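Bumping my old thread because nobody answered last time. Still need a sequence for this structure:
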């Protein structure tokens, strides 16, 4: 029934299995990939025809994590997987980026690549497995795919590279790097690092590329057994005559247009240069007009690439290493906790930082269970930033990806939660774009965080590098423009501090780049980053020592674990009262750590004092602030230290005699009291009369001590003021005989004497 083909290899100390022929047999290609107990199914389908007039390649990649893979039920009302999570979006992009350049030019058939996590062991991350499965499924599908692609994750700890590290190894290590490439070259890099050197990062990339060769070889063996017949591609038309005509019409004009250094002027000149094409081919069929437009685009690329390779001159007049002018400002927005306006050439970002308390953390529900993220970075790219009219709304895949890249760049330099117990949100709004807006977000984000008072280890800058490659001749260019990105061969982004790299991302539009090119790019990027850091320092070169007056202050204290229950109260009654009364937020953790937050220091102090009162023991002789909570005839009960009550006896209210307690005190009145005594049962006796009620200072006790009674102790039976008891007060004592003879009790406790004459019949003994 099944024609199963399978390949197994030992990879990073574990068995990687690639299998086809058992499931999803109606797809063009389907592979079940297993590593440990993590299983991913990837199925590929491709349309057999192209829509009329279509001039782009509609490749769509979907990565989905099934909660059942980890033995979990989704949260929420619907209890099923719904829209893509941030991680699913990022992994979809991770798969898309290395495979897209490997489809031939002119192939416009729609392709779906769907990868689903079916089993997850909590140890082997499914993203790398999904990339491998997608590459294998495309290779055996028969579609024109110039793969296969191999992929690997690399960690770094104690000077050693780790292939496909576990989650714990990544957290404990200094690097989380993902590399994808073909047999000959690297195609894609994504990483987060803890200020590692260029040499270590390059070594990690090449280590991953070498290790991924084993996967490529396994995919090739699987394809040899199970690949479908390759598709026949239509022969490309000979466009020599058409290209010559287009070049004659617009070639010189395009060259002149690209000499204009300002983006708006250049774009207007390019549009004007292409007008003769529309006029000349106005009567031609749609396909010819489409081809003429594509040829014009290729001519643009030739103009730009030739000028860079042959003359070292770029679109805006710079050489290959110069960074555009930078203007950085901080505290740009008055009410935010921290803000920056970062402008580099025609790329600009307004970045703001907001500080919050623990309850503002983002809850993340995934295969590993529910976790909480204290650092968030959100990136927005409105259409006006490039002078266009377009969709405006929820962020798309591009926005999510750019935001995550900036997050990775800044995350390694943030203080720990213990050092800085705030939830942090960075918001980047791109207001102009002509070149890497994600790196502008990194630079502006670093300044914004420092402006907010977040103690970064060091400032972070970022730069985007480009590549022009023709045969063996190449040029690496720093701080690329948008057109250089579109018409070039590489988008290589590097972010880091003065001490090392924190993030590295690379995308290639060709078949891959070599180690030599990467080494040059990393070295040139280091120079650019250092220059940008210097420009940023002109605006702010250190973290502010004071938080914004609008930011919440958080103070931390610790209470004994056995007192946590007292602070929270039954059903949270006490902690709610503290919050409602003081106006401060209070969060208490299982280990006794209490975080008190408010933008008003007085509210924090009030909450801290209240909690200290609940958890600390009263001291005899010490003076406390209190509040009258109840009046009784013999005194008043006063609450002090937040959670303790004591009695002020009527004699301890004032030195003078108090006839009625309510004449002097009222419920809710603030008073100052001194602890006189705490009895063994914990009852507290307080005094007001020995404390100055205005200053809280202790007063001298001027009340004279009681005089001892004359004659010492009163004689027994003597009553004060009444004299000795008189014998005749109660009359003569009655004689026992008045009650009849006393009955004797026997050994068994029963009466044995004669029954009295007045005893009722039912009490008389049977022998009567």
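Sorry it took so long. Here it is:
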């Amino acid at each position: 029934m099944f024609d199963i083909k399978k390949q197994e290899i030992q990879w990073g100390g574990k068995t990687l299995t690639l299998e086809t022929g058992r499931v999803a047999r109606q797809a063009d290609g389907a592979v079940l990939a297993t590593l440990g107990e993590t299983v991913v199914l990837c199925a590929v389908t491709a349309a057999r025809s192209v829509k009329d007039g279509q001039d782009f390649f509609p490749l769509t990649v979907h990565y989905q994590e099934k909660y059942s893979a980890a033995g979990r039920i989704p949260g929420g009302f619907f209890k099923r997987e719904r829209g893509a999570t941030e991680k699913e979006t990022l992994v979809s992009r991770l798969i898309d980026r290395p495979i897209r350049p490997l489809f031939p030019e002119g192939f416009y058939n729609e392709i779906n690549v769907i990868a689903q996590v079916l089993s997850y062991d909590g140890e082997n991350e499914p993203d790398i497995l999904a990339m491998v499965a997608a590459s294998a499924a495309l290779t055996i599908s028969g579609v024109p795919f110039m793969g296969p692609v191999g992929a690997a994750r690399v960690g770094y700890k104690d000077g050693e590279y780790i292939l496909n590290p576990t989650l714990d190894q990544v957290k404990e290590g200094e690097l989380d790097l993902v590399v994808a490439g073909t047999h000959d070259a690297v195609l894609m890099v994504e990483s987060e690092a803890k200020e590692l050197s260029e040499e270590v990062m390059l070594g990690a990339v090449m280590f991953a590329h070498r290790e991924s060769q084993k996967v490529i070889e396994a995919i090739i063996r699987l394809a040899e057994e199970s690949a479908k017949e390759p598709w026949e591609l239509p022969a490309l038309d000979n466009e020599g005559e058409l290209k010559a005509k287009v070049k004659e019409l617009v070639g010189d004009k395009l060259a002149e247009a690209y000499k204009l250094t300002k983006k708006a002027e250049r774009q207007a000149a390019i549009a004007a240069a292409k007008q003769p094409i529309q006029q000349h081919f106005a009567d031609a069929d749609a396909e010819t007009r489409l081809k003429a437009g594509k040829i014009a685009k290729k001519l643009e690329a030739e103009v730009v690439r030739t000028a860079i390779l042959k003359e070292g001159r770029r679109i805006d007049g710079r050489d290959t290493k110069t960074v555009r002018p930078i203007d950085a400002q901080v505290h740009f927005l008055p009410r935010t906790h921290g803000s920056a306006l970062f402008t580099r050439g025609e790329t600009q970002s307004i970045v703001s930082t907001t500080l919050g308390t623990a309850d503002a953390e983002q809850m993340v529900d995934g295969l590993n269970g529910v976790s909480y993220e204290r650092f968030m970075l959100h990136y927005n790219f409105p259409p006006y930033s490039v002078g266009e009219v377009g969709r405006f709304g929820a962020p798309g895949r591009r926005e999510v990806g750019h935001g995550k890249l900036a997050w990775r760049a800044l995350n390694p330099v943030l203080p720990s939660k213990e050092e800085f117990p705030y939830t942090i949100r960075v918001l980047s709004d791109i207001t102009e774009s002509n070149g890497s807006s994600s790196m502008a977000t990194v630079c502006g984000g670093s300044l914004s965080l420092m402006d907010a008072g977040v103690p970064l280890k060091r400032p972070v800058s970022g730069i985007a590098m480009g590549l022009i490659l023709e045969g063996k001749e190449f040029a690496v260019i720093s701080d690329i423009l948008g057109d250089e990105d579109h018409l070039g061969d590489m988008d290589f982004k590097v972010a880091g501090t003065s001490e090392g790299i924190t993030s590295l991302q690379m995308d290639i539009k060709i078949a891959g780049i070599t180690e030599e090119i990467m080494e040059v790019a990393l070295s040139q990027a280091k120079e650019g980053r250092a220059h940008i850091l210097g420009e940023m320092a002109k605006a702010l070169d250190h973290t502010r020592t004071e938080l914004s007056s609008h930011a919440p202050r958080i103070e931390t204290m610790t209470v004994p674990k056995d007192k946590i229950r007292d602070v929270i109260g039954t059903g949270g009654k006490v902690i709610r009262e503290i919050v409602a009364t003081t106006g401060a937020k209070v969060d208490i953790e299982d280990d006794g750590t209490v975080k008190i937050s408010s933008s008003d220091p007085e509210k924090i102090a009030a909450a801290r004092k209240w909690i200290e009162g609940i958890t600390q023991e009263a001291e005899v002789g010490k003076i406390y602030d209190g509040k009258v909570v109840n009046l009784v005839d013999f005194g008043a009960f006063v609450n002090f230290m937040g959670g303790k009550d004591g009695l002020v006896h009527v004699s301890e209210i004032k030195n003078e005699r108090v006839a009625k307690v309510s004449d002097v005190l009222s419920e809710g009145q603030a008073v100052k009291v001194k602890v006189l005594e705490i009895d063994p049962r914990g009852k507290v006796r307080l005094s007001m009369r020995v404390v100055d009620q205005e200053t809280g200072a202790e007063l001298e006790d001027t009340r004279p001590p009681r005089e001892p009674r004359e004659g010492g102790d009163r004689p027994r039976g003597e009553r004060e003021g009444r004299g000795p008891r008189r014998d005749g007060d109660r009359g003569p004592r009655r004689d026992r005989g008045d009650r009849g003879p006393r009955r004797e009790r026997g050994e068994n406790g029963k009466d044995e004497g004669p029954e009295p004459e007045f005893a009722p019949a039912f009490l008389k003994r049977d022998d009567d």
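Residues 711-722, 725-729, 755-768 have pLDDT under 50 and may be disordered. Let me know if any region looks off to you.
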